[in-house]
């Protein structure tokens, strides 16, 4: 059997702290901040750019629409935004085969680990 890989979304209480951390450090794929749920410094995000209609919102450039996963590698808490905008600064540090993508970030985390 594989190791237990139970992914869970933030609950309403965790969501606030989660958003605060991820909104504060909006500069790259890896965050140095401690996870609001377990305290580990293992937070990551990954955007999938789905079109290239660049736009500017409130002075911030975006490359187009896409999906976002945010997760902690240690406690496997995550948030997923299936329909959002990909910031102009985003460059994917590794690729994930689109056919593997699902609601939780398991395939993204696997690709991240494989690219280390
Ligand atoms: Zn955690």
Give the SSE layout:
Elements: E1 8-9, H1 12-24, E2 30-31, E3 43-49, E4 55-57, E5 60-72, E6 77-87, H2 106-115
Parallel strand pairs: 1-6
Antiparallel strand pairs: 2-3, 3-5, 4-5, 5-6
The structure holds zinc ion (ZN).
The site of zinc ion has 8 residues, from loops.
Number of β-strand runs? 6
Q: Based on Cα principal axes, name the global outline.
A: globular
**Approximately how much helix is present in the residues?**
10-25%
Question: What are the distinct ligands in this entry?
Answer: zinc ion
The stretches of 5 or more residues where confidence is low (pLDDT under 50) are none
Largest sheet: 6 strands, mixed
Distance between the termini: 24 Å
Count of structural domains: 1
**Structure annotation, total helices:** 2
- Secondary-structure-based class equals alpha+beta
Q: Report the order of strands and helices.
A: EHEEEEEH
| Residue share in β-strands | 25-35%
The pLDDT mean sits at: 95
Radius of gyration: 14 Å
